[in-house]
Structures are given as structure tokens and as C-alpha cells.
Input
Amino acid sequence: MSDDGTRNADGAAVADEEARERARASRRPDFWEALYLRAETGWDLGGPTPVLRAALDTGLLGEPGRIVVPGAGRGYDAVLLAERGFAVTAVDFSASAVAHLQGEAAARGLEMDVRQQDVFALEEEPAGCMDACFEYTCFVAIDPALRERYAALLTHLVRPGGRLLFLAFPLGKESPGPPHGLTLEELEGLFGEAWRWVIDTEAPASVEARRPMERLVLLERRAGA
Ligand SMILES: C[S@@+](CC[C@H](N)C(=O)[O-])C[C@H]1O[C@@H](n2cnc3c(N)ncnc32)[C@H](O)[C@@H]1O
Output
């Protein structure tokens, strides 16, 4: 700190480097596995987000089809989608999260394709192999330097005419992540060309603490983009 209490340039540079290092570390499964093991899972709602339930009740995802849930965590949302008849592919590289998800699926007698792997392994899947994607806080979990690649991945996976239900949170957060904040402008830049904006709205069903920083965005994959 300088005499007037503001952070000096050196301090800012150190803080920036620490933030970049943490973002780089978050590319590895052991970073997330450690958070699960230490129960530092502030993102975990202990059940499906009410926004997804409301979206399903109002038909936003259309008829049940093949859906991918990247960074599914303990899998409450993925399980809800499977219960509603979707053929779910749920991906997470944390062993603890995947074990929990598999246990939940088995307890309910649900058939789900649960994969313990890096989401970027899905780049090997055939183009358009999914009818839909549900994205909730995987985008903000990955290193921001990988966002363009991640957007390209979702565009690769979902067939033309398919949907991306993107629950954007935490909007406008500026402190270092993860979670790394995002903006709607950034999403438009990343998805605007290949996807048509269908809905962009406040999500009244959001859990109270997240509501001011959460929006529901529904996109439809353009043909030929
Ligand atoms: C913030 S948590 C969100 C989990 C879940 N979507 C939820 O809302 O509870 C992010 C999850 O993404 C996983 N994750 C982060 N980067 C990943 C990657 N590159 N490949 C696979 N999983 C990843 C983490 O293990 C963690 O479970």
C-alpha cells in the first residue's frame, strides 16, 4: 500500500499475477477435487436450481432430447433433466462430484451418461450430437483465457436448431475467481454469431442471494453458422 492507502503498482501487479495463477490452477481436476474434499463448495445449492425447474415447467427446452451438462458438479440439475425424460450426458472432472452424481442417479434408477473427464474432451464428439445444453457455472469456473474455446465447444456439440439454456451468474463480478464474473456483452460476443438470442431475462425463480447477479439466457443454434 502507498501512504495514502491505495494499492501501488507493484501490489496490483502481484495481485494480478496471483489471480492469473489461480485461474491457471483451476484448469486441473485436483484444484476442484480439493474444494469438494474441503467442503468449500459455495456454488452448491444442495438441489437443482429452481430456475431450471421453472424453465422445464414452461417448456423452454422443448421436447426432451439429448442434452449435455458441462461441469455438472454433484449433478442435481442433470438428475432433474433425466427425471424429465432427457438423455443426459453429464461431465465433470472431479471424482467426488461424479461419485455423488452417480449415486443420485442410481438411487433414482436413472440411466445417465456420466463422464469423469475434462469438458474439452467433448471436442472429440461428433458435431451436432446434442439437441441442447444446460450451462450453469461451468463457464465461470474455467480459466477465462479458455472462454472462446469453451464457447466453440458448445457450438460444436449442439445441432442447428438446438438450444442452449445459459444461466448467467455471477454477472458483473469483478473480484478474482473462480467464479470469474461475466457480462451479457461478453456472451453476445462469444455466442452472437452462431446462436440466435431467444430470451434474455431476469430469472424470478433464482435463489434469493443470486437473483441480482443472475439472468436466464436462451439461445438457439443457427443453421450453417
Ligand atoms: C462452480 S462448480 C458448478 C457445479 C454445478 N454446475 C453446480 O451448479 O452445482 C464448477 C464445476 O465444474 C467442474 N469443472 C471445472 N472445470 C472443468 C473442466 N475443465 N472439465 C470438467 N469439469 C470442470 C468442477 O469440478 C466443478 O464441479
Observations:
- The chain has one domain: 9-221.
